[in-house]
């Protein structure tokens, strides 16, 4: 699958590397495709990765991961242009009380937006395996086929995808996870994770 990552930092760099290692074709959309940072990332990522501008990456990807800081979301989506038919994974978080989900749905022109990976620290995305099982990736979106594609991409890197339903259900999950995260992080740091057991 052709996957673009707009953002090449903790989230974009980690997920891009993992998908490329599985044989997906990855393009990092970045402000400077020729920077030393991007050269190092491409060296680490291997033959299945390349870098381009944000517009080039948006045109390249069948699936596009949006992995920039909240203040850059509006600008990069404007630069990406029309995303008709593309699956846009929104892993961005805002910390000012506004909804990153609502913002991206409003700004992403014609994309099939799927909310995913935002409940997991990048350290867990780098390695989601625990002795007791796999870390859960909570996913939501209005387009079942797009959600299924993202669930598959999550499962391929070792996560346990759980489709929580629509955006209202996800807002509740985000609030609950934020509370649990805040309570347990002082004890377990960034390497712990939550798993949904079900039958
Ligand atoms: N870190 C986590 O564990 C974590 C977990 C869940 C959710 N998130 C969310 O994921 C998003 C990305 O977080 P991160 O930790 O990956 O951030 P990061 O490491 O700072 O990376 C952000 C990337 O955005 C790009 N960028 C920065 N300024 C930009 C600009 N003005 N225009 C275009 N691109 C710009 C940069 O790529 P270039 O320099 O190549 O342009 C950079 O690599 C955030 O919304 C965060 O809330 C993070």
TrEMBL record:
Q: Does the keyword Kinase apply?
A: no
Q: Which UniProt keywords apply?
A: Oxidoreductase
The keyword Plastid belongs to this UniProt entry's keyword annotation: no
- Pfam family name, one: F420_oxidored
Name all Pyrroline-5-carboxylate reductase catalytic N-terminal domain ranges.
2-93
Name-wise, this protein is NADPH-dependent F420 reductase
Species whose genome carries this gene? Paenibacillus aurantiacus
